[in-house]
Design goal:
Structural class: mainly beta
Order of helices and strands: EEEEEEEEEEE
Helix content: under 10%
Largest sheet: 7 strands, mixed
Length: 127
């Protein structure tokens, strides 16, 4: 069974940090660009960050630049999202998705066209 499983969410105070993990089972992430997305109540799902197949390209939405870092560990078949200096507006369900994009140096942060999705992990930033 092909699955993506997110973990690492939780409740954190403003200014705190969390590291989200996106682990794959049943397939290798080497052939996929990976994106992190989030969806807050009443809002559309938005792209937060993505990383290319070869790891050379990373992209971030403006609101998280300088605070979030995406990375991938091929040995663990896992992609991470390190989130620092968290703000209440970062509160959302976070999802990872795998995109079988042809070019190994590209990734995209649009929800459409992703091949696999995880079930999501809740991140709540509140004092």
């Amino acid at each position: 069974q092909l699955q993506l499983v997110e973990s690492g969410g939780g409740l954190v105070q403003p200014g705190g940090s969390l590291r989200l993990s996106c682990a794959a089972s049943g397939f290798t992430l080497d052939y996929y660009a990976i994106g992190w997305f989030r969806q807050a109540p009443g809002k559309e799902r938005e792209g937060v960050s993505c990383i290319s197949r070869n790891g050379d390209t990373t992209n971030y939405v403006d609101s998280v630049k300088g605070r979030f870092t995406i990375s991938r560990d091929k040995a663990k078949n896992t992609v991470y999202l390190q989130m620092n200096s968290l703000k209440p507006e970062d509160t959302a369900v976070y999802y990872c998705a795998a995109d079988a994009i042809l070019f190994q140096t590209m990734c995209k942060m649009t929800p459409s066209g992703q091949n696999y999705w995880g079930q999501g992990t809740q991140v709540t930033v509140s004092s």
